[in-house]
Design brief:
about 260 residues; alpha/beta; six-stranded mixed beta sheet; five-stranded mixed beta sheet; 7 helices; elongated
Length: about 260
């Protein structure tokens, strides 16, 4: 029987070009753990690793088994995706590329719209800020897949970043994903892969609009200029309070969006 999600520390094939090694770092924020993606064209010897994840020797050892590694790509800077990048680069000799040049090792930063050729694949870089300023997605041309990092998850919804304009950025990023061809396989940073990335992006857009309506309703109940936590206590009343700090960040982004709209 083939492995199914969640299958820790084994390479689980998903598409003709992509397989995933799930790190054993589950939490309330990482869901089942961080998905480290291994990309290669059929028959190609080398591979690309996207998001080597936590600096865990066992996890990195399992990733190295599927080398040689030609290139490491990062979807964004959060440590559950990028912490191991330097160690993994030292172990494999592979350069590391990301939007933020401070995360790069032995190579220059990525640019929106750039196409990276490696492991027999053409990997197209799509800027998708919102979760963080430096969030990227990677479209694997010819494979019918897109790696979404934390921009779109395999289960649940993502936390918005705390940078100015995060929600506006995020809605535009979801629009870019919604414009991909129907049936594009979604390969997320956390959670299971999904069969139709543009459909999932449209569902995310609908969810964000619903949340905005809930925030607008909460504002009608509260004094002028409330703190994010006051809104969270109304809108996220049915959510475990351990997740409220993350909700504070998203609500702050929603309030900034509404005040600027």
């Amino acid at each position: 029987m083939s492995d199914t999600h969640p299958a820790y520390e084994v390479l689980r094939p998903v598409t003709t070009a992509a397989g995933v090694v799930l790190a054993d770092n589950p939490s309330g924020m990482t869901l089942d753990g961080t998905n480290s993606w291994v990309l290669r064209a059929p028959g190609n010897h080398g591979c690309v690793v996207v998001d080597p994840g936590p600096d865990d020797p066992h996890h990195l050892g399992r990733l190295r088994e599927h080398g040689p590694v030609e290139l490491v790509l990062l979807t964004h800077h959060h440590l559950d995706h990028s912490e191991a990048a330097r160690t993994f680069a030292e172990q494999t000799g592979a350069p590391v590329r990301a939007l933020d040049p401070t995360l790069c090792l032995g190579a220059e930063g990525l640019g929106a719209g750039e196409t990276v050729g490696a492991a027999g694949l053409d990997i197209r870089v799509v800027a998708t800020p919102g979760h963080t300023r430096d969030s990227l997605c990677f479209v694997v041309d010819g494979d019918g897949s897109v790696l979404t990092g934390d921009t779109v998850l395999g289960r649940g919804t993502t936390v918005l970043g705390d940078h100015h304009g995060a929600l506006g950025d995020y809605l535009r990023s979801l629009d870019r994903l919604a414009a991909l061809p129907a049936g594009t396989t979604l390969l997320p940073g956390h959670g299971p892969d999904l069969p139709d990335a543009p459909r999932t992006a449209r569902e995310y857009l609908a969810h964000r609009e619903q949340r905005l309506e809930q925030v607008r309703a909460a504002l009608r109940q509260l004094p002028a200029d409330p703190e994010p936590r006051q809104v969270v206590e109304i809108v996220y009343a049915d959510v475990d309070e351990s997740l409220w700090p993350a909700a504070d960040i998203s609500v702050a982004a929603q309030l900034a969006y509404l005040r600027g709209a």
